[in-house]
Structures are given as C-alpha cells and as structure tokens.
Amino acid sequence: xxxxxxxxxxxxxxxxxELVQQGASIIDVRSASEFQSGHIPQSxxxxxxxxxxxxxxxxxMKQPIITCCASGMRSAAAKATLQAKGIETFNGxxxxxxxxxIDS
Length: 104
Hints:
The protein contains six helices and four strands; from the N terminus they run H-H-E-H-E-H-E-H-E-H. By secondary structure, the protein is α/β, with parallel strands linked by helices. It has one domain (15-103): Oxidized Rhodanese, domain 1 (3-Layer(aba) Sandwich). It has a four-stranded parallel beta sheet with strand order 2-1-3-4. It is globular.
C-alpha cells in the first residue's frame, strides 16, 4: 500500500543500500546502552539528545548521513535537526531493519 502511495504522489524511493555502498555515514541515535546491545557495525553512536552538540563533527563526516534508532521516531527527529543545519540526511528507521536492507 505504501509503495502505491509513493508512486501515486511521485515520491522518490531512496536506496539506502546504494547510499551505504557509496560511503554514506550511519548515525545511530539511540542511547549508549541501546547501541551496546546491538548495532550496525559501521555505524557511530550519537544519542539524539546530543546530536545538536556534534553538528560540526557530523558536517566533516562522509555524506549523506543515514540516521537510525529503535523505531524510526528518534531518527526522524535527528534527520530534521541535521537537515535544518544543511546536512544531507535520510531516515533509515529501525536499525535492525536498516541492517537487513543494506545487507541484502
């Protein structure tokens, strides 16, 4: 159904696997303890409540940036924060689902 709506409204589909293959950086915005319990190997952890303090560091990272978290809510908020600072960012949603997408 969601794919139908994307086509209907001409919303482009982003290939996250391709972005990662081209060198995109992945930022996991969960807490440090959540990150330690499991994460995408090449991701870095910057908790959502600290994202604003790391803007200059993030601007120096290989872009685009893909954000992820446990459900997609915090990563969506991080995406909005980073985009407001002029950083090309995509919401990868749930970290485990993102891992499956980039591994397939």
